[in-house]
Amino acid sequence: MPSTINNTGANTSSDAGGSCSSCACGKGQGILQGLWPRRVIQAVSFYFLAEFSYYGIFRCPFAVPYVSCANCPVVQCPGRKLWLVVLSGILVSGLLFGRAFCGYACPVGTLSDIFSQVALVKRRMAPMVKRVLHMGKYLAAAGAVYVFFAMHNPRWAVPIRTGEFVNSTMLTFEHANLFWLVRTGVVSAAILLGLLIPYFFCRFLCPTGGVLEVLRRFSLFGYSMNSACVDCGKCDRHCKLDTRPGESNCTNCGSCVDTCPVDAIAITRGLKPKN
């Protein structure tokens, strides 16, 4: 049986009667919750990873960025030193905490978080529309895997080894083929679309998010709802990713915990079927 972690760090059943009677926790103070700790982690991660993320989108000559850094001639890219650590960290975090990397450490996730504060469309999407759009990140992940393994991750742009920041970026655009321009244009547009629809890229198009979404289903830790849930929808309406604890696109940020009127949201530890 899965167990939860209360605010003292002790384990307790999450299904016994569906209440938090045995866990003063209920509000889930635990390893993943807390606004300011999350903000600190986001700021630190952004400091170390934002430049790598920028190079991946706007300077990487390969079809699939971030994965062929060992062979990349762009000597200015910090990814030449960071890529193996970052990819290993993403994999381990996915197995442990599902999509927590998206909500805590990804620079694009942090940027989308900022955009969501001013996003213009506040209405929830229709369930059918969401189900269709959700497929985008899985298709993007499958496409990336195919290009990397079956096509050996070809170069779609001439690598600009070094140079001034803006000029090097402009030169990469000038010496890229149509596929690279389309890829970069779609990614950039999807990120900017977050100013209209919160987290559009993260929710519907990010290939890394698609991979982590699969790992989330088998992750060891993560927020979920116990049997006390009355399906009031408050957590859903509070979440800017338009989801609920333990469901698709949940990044385990924990911001919804305090909205639950029956303390049904808590951190689950151990294997448990996830939606």
UniProtKB/TrEMBL annotation:
Any one annotated GO CC term: plasma membrane
Keywords: 4Fe-4S, Electron transport, Iron, Iron-sulfur, Membrane, Metal-binding, Transmembrane, Transmembrane helix, Transport
Keyword presence, Manganese: no
Record's keyword annotation contains NADP: no
Annotated TM spans: 82-102, 132-151, 178-201
Domain 4Fe-4S ferredoxin-type stretches: 241-270
Entry protein name: 4Fe-4S ferredoxin-type domain-containing protein
